[in-house]
Model the fold of this input.
Amino acid sequence: MKSHSAWGTSKSLVKFRIPTSDNLVPIRLDIEIDGQRFRDAFTWNPSDPDSEVVVFAKRTVKDLKLPPAFVTQIAQSIQTQLTEFRSYEGQDMYTGERVVPIKLDLRVNHTLIKDHFLWELNNFESDPEEFARNFCKDMGIEDPEVGPAIAIAIREQLYEIAVQSVTSAKESRISKKGRRAGEFYSASKTGGNAVDLVKLFGNKSSVIRKRKEWDVYEPIVDLLSNEEVDALEAKEERNIR
Amino acid sequence: MATGNKSPSTPIPESSAAKPISDASTPTITIDLTPPSDSTPGAITTTSAAAASASNSITAPNSIATTTTTTATATSTSNSTARPHSEQLSSDADIIHIPSYSRWFAWNSVHECEVRFVPEFFDGRSPSKNPRVYKYYRNAIIRRFRENPAKKITFTEVRKTIVGDVGSIRRIFDFLEAWGLINYTGSSKPQLKWEEKESKLAAAALQGGDAAGGSGTNVTISKSKLCSNCKGVCSFACFASDKHDMTLCARCYVRGSYRDSSEFKRVEISEEAKTDWTDKETLQLLEAIMHYGDDWKKVAEHVGGRSEKECVTHFVNLPFGEQFDGPPESAELDTALSSQNLSRPTKRMCPSPLTDLSHPIMAQAAFLSTLVGVDVAEVAARAALTALSALGDGKLKESFKISSGAAKQQESDIASNSDDPNSMEGDLAEARLQLEKEDEELEKAISGIAVQTKEIEDKIVQFEEFDLQMERKRQQLQQLLNLLFVDQFTLSLHKTPAQQKAGESVGEGVKAD
Done:
């Protein structure tokens, strides 16, 4: 394990996809028309036909009784995010044994969640939805909207990382510095996120975390009262504006 | 997008429905079907189904806190049986209604029509879409709806709370909604035509004789479809497209050049199915026919609200049998028609158009009339009429037997050339009375049986409680026994050393002395 480099051996080129068991795209909507704000986030299956987008937009507007001007906006927003995703689709990305830290810091209705854990990027069988379901079950979260929010947050971060690895793959090909240097290059560029397994496990060869790191990695779930929720919302709005 | 199959093979003929009822009542929640349509003559649960389900619920006590009450209304035309099952979770008895064509639903399994309608989860194309995931989504959606069954749940609420991709969730949601497992509050929901067809097929599959007249649908079907283009009422067929959320009448569809003809589904609308014939309307129809005979225009006017075609189709589909509690109508009708039959011999040679439709009465009457000759048949008809009017309109239950019995009697009488109207009348009246008596006795017996079974059920419940109490007492007794034993044991233990000591001290005392 000591001489095993985290990057070197199993570096292969794979077609771009979200590194989870199902290739779903996280979509985030934040639309404002006439002072009415609509924020939402969900996962989309990119293999659905495009007509689905309009159907979904109409359905959402109807269910939430939003003014019909939202329909086109929603549909457009979804479409742009989808096309962006698709633009990456043909390209290659590197996968290696990379373990990345994922941070959760979100507020859903009355629940505040903070968490920090490691996720293996190489595992194409991983399932953020499953993780989210288990999280809610273990932490006894009753609000059913939290699960999807967690899954989406994880997916978004994975998506970003995947995108980064695509760009790095492109760059390393452009920079014709030979193979080894290329590896280093990409390693240093994208390695900022990843955790060096060698360093972690190398010395003590124990899998248990050091005690002082325990509270960093512990999940925190807070239930907020109404006033706190309002205060937080006001702060968020101010930040955004 | 799940392509809604236009006319799928009927998933479940009613005859096999008895099985899924017991399957569907899994330990967790028993839901049940009640077609809450108000006064449809002959709703889906007709007498045979009711009897079957009654026997099921009484003999199969798999209930964990389900109380089944069956009210079998065997004879009357109007209402269907309701079997409310109480949900075990909530304290008050919630009744979940689902249409009977969805009774295949079970929490733990996937039925074949689900595989058909939502195939993406079952064809193994994508690894994350498998039956387990499908079941999870489906059960989550249904559970969420049932938390508040009075309120229709929207897709957006659902998808916010379920972890997964929204496209598949939407498809499952649509599927469940179309099949009435969600948001089925029985009110005017526009349904697809294939649903009506299926329920009709199911009704037809029951027994020919008892088939509900015309529209035995178990869902109060919607208003007419409006074309979104020309805003006219779609009459025969309309083209519905979910993708563009439009409904077009046939004309607009043909005229406009709509791309992707595959998006549009042809939806047949038959006038009959849109509205149910109430008893009152049927009565009016019969009266009108009696008065106006062949003049369907006048009949349609008399009935009010029905076109000629509807009247004709409905009349043609009427079963002349047990369904009708208004005996004078049908008997008179038969005779009236047969007399009409005769008065226009040139038009109606045998076989008359009515006999083609396999009404036993009509066939018999027409056959007899041709057999016997015009004049004799007229006389017989008149005699029957006078007999009826003489007896007045009591509670005569008209049945096939009566008419055929009367017809047969008439035939035999005529054949034997005894032209005695009085005896015929008497015979007719006697036969009718007997039948009536039998019917009444039957009803009493049935209700008696129902009452008895109810009593027995109650007694069983009481005995169970007693048993439970006895068991408890027994256990207490056992505990007391155990304690007693322990006491005895310790006592005996203490006794023996005490005795020894006593012995010693005595011995010592003796020695000392």
Observations:
- The longest strand of chain A covers residues 99-108.
- The first helix of chain A runs from residue 51 to 64.
